[in-house]
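WARN no homologs supplied; continuing
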Amino acid sequence: MTARSLAESVGGVRGIVESMVPGMLFLGVYAFTNELMSALIGPVAFGVVSLLVRFVRREPVMPALAGLLALALSAFLALRSGNDADYFLLGFVMNAGWIVAFTVSLLVNWPLVGVGAGLLSGTGSAWRAHRPCLIAMRWLTLAWIAVSALRLAVQLPLYLAGNVTGLGTAKLLMGTPMQAVLLVGTFLVAKGVLEKSGILHPNARGIST
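OK structure emitted
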């Protein structure tokens, strides 16, 4: 489990930029125009340019393509219903989906954070044989559930109130920045627990931060 593998899992600096800029463009334009169509132009244009740049440079296009498809679906939902706040419905569904997935993983005693840590570190499921590791992975998985639940708790009332600007601001602040803090915290705790248990050797090749 390396810092590099963690950075690659979120697409590096470019991935962070590509995830934040569309939301910033949407929020900025909508705050001034209060019009959904006008606010969609910037994010869509940015998504298309990001996709083309990756294609021309022969880089993986899936991150940009996934972002563009998510944007298109969000726009479709809002335009179809005539409710600008529906632009954020997809985010609610995704957060709810993560809550369900993480919760199920806890119920079957395969916490998803542990599964991910095993894959990134190359240690497989060895963490399950060490109770301290298993307990730590459970708590980390609960942290991911809590973050998704917090997003819904804050954003759903704004959605129900039709506060698109407030909802966009909350989504922006509780999106990539919060995700980055959660990822780094998860990485540090999981790595420390795996090393302390002897599953992960800090001096092994490709394992150090």
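The CA atoms of residues 55 and 61 lie 6 Å apart.
OK
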